[in-house]
Amino acid sequence: MTRKVFNFSPGPALIPEPVLRQAADEMLDWQGTGMSVMEVSHRGKDFMALHARAIADLRELLAIPPNYKVLFMQGGALAENAIVPLNLMGDAGQADYLLTGQWSLKSAREAARYGQVNIVADAAGAAGADAPGAKGAYTHIPEQSVWKLSREAAYLHLCTSETIEGVEFQRDPIVGLGEHEVSPDVPIVADMSSHILSRVIDVSRYGCLYGGAQKNIGPAGLTFVIVREDLIGRAHRLCPSAFNYQVVADNDSMFNTPPTFGIYLAGLVFEWLKAQGGVAAIEAINIEKARMLYDAIDGSGLYQNRVSRTDRSRMNVTFFLRDERLNEAFLADAREAGLMNLKGHRVVGGMRASIYNAMPIEGVRALVAFMRDFEQRRG
Ligand SMILES: *Cc1c(COP(=O)(O)O)cnc(C)c1O
Questions:
Q1: What is the pLDDT of residues 110-142, one digit of tens each?
Q2: Using a 6 Å CB cutoff, which residues line ligand 1?
Q3: Residue 45 falls in the annotated catalytic set
């Protein structure tokens, strides 16, 4: 039995089939315990071993340096929008935010409840995201040379993969003492929800990486935080203990009951990824999948992508039908062909194919074939 459809959902998103199969096989009896993994103590030795292995695998996959802690938390990436300033703003009371799309915009707005937010650049233009029509305006990442970085900021926040618009950083920001470089004294905090583990990154350029699991790691409800040790321990006194990086780190992510099933499934995804050859190997496949889809879009008279070519996302491919009256027919015919959840985010409109790590290349091939066929019939 194989799955009947290809699911292009932006999140919660598809999970590798072998992972779901293994989870199904062990559902009623995990490792001979006679219980499901959901039913065992998070402090029991079996689960503790699973937890340690998941962290070790994530460390290996991302080549996380030893002076970083890996925390598994809850509350989604949006809760991190508050947890980050509560933990990292410290005495500076201010932080820099780069606006490149809806997610970084949300992050900046939430952070402004806790301190001063400096906008280093707004990709929606001078008018900003509140201008009429600006909602579709996030189509590029401003060059680092135009960022207005402040020396006093406790950190610089980025969203390196804007899931809604399909805009993605193609390289890590440049850290250094040069004029346009991010000062090593201002740690970079990045929301990597939708492209973590999809490409090789240099973790040492960042002070803190975080995100929700439900795009590229596992089920919703689990979040990951990878934070440099020297940034831990500056939390505001009103920061809830369960969200205090220090408390969570000191308790090995077990200050309170962690999302055990999510950690279990994430662990299986990490094992699956290692079996694929690791992040560099999956990145090569991701490059090929994205190339196939963008080539199909660029080579057609019906489809159009509006993101600046150098900033196009490999994970979330957004496109529009030049004749928007065909949108409903496109989606209905796609569903008929087993190609699910292609509708774009309501803020942007159009279409979006999320092709995370778990999307097999056959899924992209099927989508490209469908798009060509639809264009021939209806375009
Ligand atoms: C999905 C997503 C979020 C929101 O995550 P929640 O788990 O719903 O809080 C935030 N940032 C990015 C980049 C995302 O893709």
A1: 999 999 999 999 999 866 656 655 556 899 999
A2: 11, 76-78, 103, 159, 161, 163, 191, 193-194, 212, 215
A3: no
Environment class of residue 24 by beta-carbon count within 10 Å: exposed (0-12), middle (13-18) or buried (19+)?
exposed
Strand 188-191 and strand 156-159: the pairing is parallel
Best of 73, 109, 162, 194 for a ligand 1 pocket test (most atoms within 8 Å of beta carbon): 194
pLDDT under 70: residue ranges of the chain? 1, 126-136
Predicted confidence at residue 132, as pLDDT, reads 53
In 3D space, the residue among 254, 227, 259 whose CA is nearest the CA of residue 84 turns out to be: 227
Residues 6+ apart with CB under 8 A from 44: none
Nearest CA to ligand 1 atom 10: 77
The residue from 191, 272, 289, 311 that is catalytic is 191
What are the residues facing 316 on neighbouring strands? 354
Active site residue 30: no
Backbone φ, ψ for residue 271 (5° rounding): -65, -40
pTM of the entire predicted model: 0.97
Closest Cα to atom 13 of ligand 1: 193
Half-sphere exposure of 281 (CA within 13 A, CB side): 9
User: CA 164, CA 194: separation in Å to the nearest integer?
Assistant: 10
Q: Is 96 a catalytic residue?
A: no
Q: Which atom of ligand 1 is found nearest the CA of 194?
A: 15
How many A from CA of 196 to the centre of ligand 1? 12
Lookup: tokens for 294: 């963008």
**Which token pair is 151?**
């020396």
Residues 301-316 have pLDDT tens digits of 999 999 999 999 999 9
